[in-house]
Amino acid sequence: MFVDEAEIWVFGGDGGNGCASFRREKYEPFGGPDGGDGGDGGSVYCVADPSCNVLMHLAGKHHWRAGRGGHGMGKKRHGKKGKDIFIPLPPGTIIRDAERQVVLKDLLKPGERICVARGGRGGLGNVHFATSTHQAPRECTPGEPGQVRRLHLELKLIADVGLVGQPNAGKSTLLRRLSAARPKVAAYPFTTLQPVLGIVELPGYRRFVMADIPGLIEGAHRGAGLGDAFLRHIERTRLLVHMVDIHPPAEQAVRRFRAVNEELRKYSPNLASKPQIVAANKMDLTENRRAFRAFAEGVGVEVVGISAATGEGLAGLTERIWRALHCGAGAES
Questions:
Q1: How far apart are CA 85 and CA 92, in angstroms?
Q2: C-alpha span between 182 and 174 (Å, rounded)
Q3: Residue 190's pLDDT is what?
Q4: E strand or H helix at 262
Q5: Which residue in 125, 129, 138, 144 is deepest, having the highest Cβ count within 10 Å?
Q6: Concatenated DSSP letters for 47-116?
Q7: CATH class of the domain whose range is 161-327
Q8: How far is 7 from 218, CA to CA, in rounded Å?
Q9: What is the CATH number assigned to the segment(s) 1-155?
C-alpha cells in the first residue's frame, strides 16, 4: 500500500520533579538540604532514513511519546533523563506543524533530522534554594511539561526524471524496460495506481532515477480520472519525459500532448516550465511511423521516436536524458 500523507501527534517527555530532602547521618541529625534535580524529559526527532520508502509504518501508530525524566532524590541524586525517540521517515518528506501550517523541515538528505517535540526541563531540588539566611529550604520546583505537536507529513518522491502522459501511453512499459522496477502493465487505462521509482543504469557507471506516476487526462486538476494527487511526486524532478501514444490520426496525438501540458500548467506553473523530452511511443506499428512526422510538425518541438515494447530508440532516449540532466542539452523548455 502506497501511503504518502499522514498526521501524527508527538509528545515530548515531561521533566522530572525536583526533590526536597535533607541530609540525615549519624551524629548529624540536622544536615543541610540535599535534594537532587529532576531529569529532563526526552525529545522526539524525525530522521530521514533511506530504508523507508513510504509512510506506511505511520498508518497504525499516530501517537509518539518520548520518555519522562526521573524525579530527583536525596543525597543530591539527579533524576534520569527521559529517553529520546526517533521517527524514521523516507527522504523527501515535508514536515508541517498542522496547527500553524508552518513547514518545520524538508528532509532531503539521508541522515538529516529535526527535533519536533522538545522534552521539558527537570525541576530543581531544594539544594538550589539554600542561602545564608534560609538554610533549611523546603522549596523545590516541578518538572516542565514536554512540547506537544500535531504534525502533517507529506512525501514527495526524489527522482531525476518524471514520466508524464495520458493513460496507456506506455510509461510503465518504458520503466520496466529501462530499470529493474516492475510496475503493473495491462491493456486498460489507469493500470498504474501509485508512483513507482526505477534506477536506470547506463554504460560507464552512470545512472539516474526515473519516476512513473498515474496517467493524466483532461480535467485531472478538477479530480477527473485519478486527479492530480500524484503530481507532487514529480515536482522535485529536474526533467520530464512526456510520452505520447502517436496512434493515428496525428491530430488526436497532438491534442493529447497539449491536454497533458495544460493540466501541468493548471496544477503548477513551475512544474509546467520544467524542461521536457517528448517521446513518441509505439513506433513499432507501421501506421504510427507515418503519423510520426505529422505529430512532430503539430507539436512544433523535437520528438524522439521510440517503442517501449521492442526497445527501439531507447538507447538514444536515455543518452538524451543524461545529456539534459548533466549538460542542459537535448530538452525543450
A1: 20
A2: 10
A3: 52
A4: helix 250-267
A5: 125
A6: EE-TT--SSGGGTT--EEEPPPPPPPBTTTBPPPPPPPEEEEE-TTEEEEETTTTEEEEEE-STT-EEEE
A7: alpha beta
A8: 31
A9: 2.70.210.12
Q: Are 119 and 13 in contact, with CB atoms under 8 Å apart?
A: yes
Is residue 5 a contact partner of residue 110, using CB atoms and an 8 Å limit?
no
Q: What is the pLDDT of residues 189-220, one digit of tens each?
A: 455 667 888 889 999 889 999 988 888 877 77
Residue type, 138: R
Note the pLDDT tens digit of each residue in 213-254.
888 877 776 666 665 677 888 888 999 999 998 887 888 889
Among 82, 90, 89, which residue's Cα sits nearest to residue 11? 82
Is the model's pLDDT at 188 over the cut of 60?
no
| 188 vs 272: which has the higher pLDDT | 272
SS3 313: coil
Copy the grid coordinates of residue 331.
530538452
d(CA 226, CA 240): 19
Mean pLDDT (the chain, rounded): 88
For 169-204, b/e burial (b = at least 16 CB within 10 A) is: bbbbbbbbbbbebebebeeeeebbebbbbbebeeee
Domain boundaries, the chain: 1-155, 161-327
